Amino acid sequence: MTGSIVVQMKSMLTQLPESERKAASYMLDEPEEVSKLSIHALAEKAGTSAAAITRLCRSLGLTGFPDLKVRLSVDNAKPQMPGYYDIEPEETVPNVIRKTVSNSLQAIQDTMLHVQPEMIEQVVRSFDEASVIYMYGVGASAIVAADAAQKWLRLGKQAFALQDEHVIAAALASAPPQALFMGVSYSGNTREVVQLFRVAKQYGVRSIGLSRFGSHKISELADMMLYTPLAPEATLRSGATSSRLAQLVVIDILFFAYASTQYEETIAKLGRTHQAISFLK
Question: Is it the case that residue 146 has pLDDT exceeding 60?
């Protein structure tokens, strides 16, 4: 399953340098033409340079122009061009269902563009070696942080999603060796989360960021970065809903990758935690 490069280009368009934006705009307007063109022919038609197209490929997280042509061909072959849909006034319930499910599926598919196996493996090793894991997010991202914390807590890790930034700042300042901080923010610029990354860096606590693809404050501060796709702005925040789902998918990928490295121990611990809470039912 491959995420949509068309959606990714649309989302990033306003953030791209002018030379890259010209190439992206042409490809969005004429996606079927790209497969027939060389990089130099495309540059001429778009009014830019081959070097700018190469830089665009890097900005999109692709290996090069051939990879970009393959991604566009996949999108062109779909019966309906991919995208995110906002809810309109007086929308019928069947349309709400269709759009909501479509947005969710699109977010999951687009996540595939940004999940790097090497980084997943690195984060899994860091989780395994961590003496304690502090997790933090604001708003919808707090839900993601809480979900991650309870998952690793059930596996015997000291994992906490603290909601008071003063408390977590104090915890980072007095953290034991091999402590880990994970900050979640879709924008990558949420003030409280960014400040806690600075605190973690100040006290030598290794950090992991979970945020949208692109350049932002968290990507500058985190030791390790996990990216989710950019979602277009939406009046009723269907983009925010999609971004939260993408973040939860990344957490699930981390969890299953972690569990597979110690399968028998994971099954045993999950069984014990299930038994421990059974009296509450």
Answer: yes
Q: How far apart are CA 232 and CA 203, in angstroms?
A: 36
User: The domain that contains 247 carries what CATH number?
Assistant: 3.40.50.10490
User: Tokens 């990507």 belong to which residue?
Assistant: 219
What's the predicted TM-score (pTM) here?
Answer: 0.75
Contact 257, 124 (CB under 8 A): yes
What are 30-80's pLDDT values in tens digits? 888 888 899 999 999 999 999 999 999 988 888 899 999 988 888 777 655
Q: Is residue 35 domain-shared with residue 151, that is, in the same domain?
A: no
CA 45/CA 40 separation, integer angstroms: 9
pLDDT at 1 over 50: no
* In a domain? residue 138: yes
Give the chain's domain count: 2
Determine contact, residues 84/239, Cβ cutoff 8 Å.
Answer: yes
Q: What is the CATH number of the domain that holds 58?
A: 1.10.10.10
Position 90 in a domain: no
Average pLDDT of span 227-239: 64
Distance CA(48)–CA(124), nearest Å, equals: 41
Is residue 61 a part of any domain in this protein? Answer: yes
End-to-end CA distance of the chain: 38
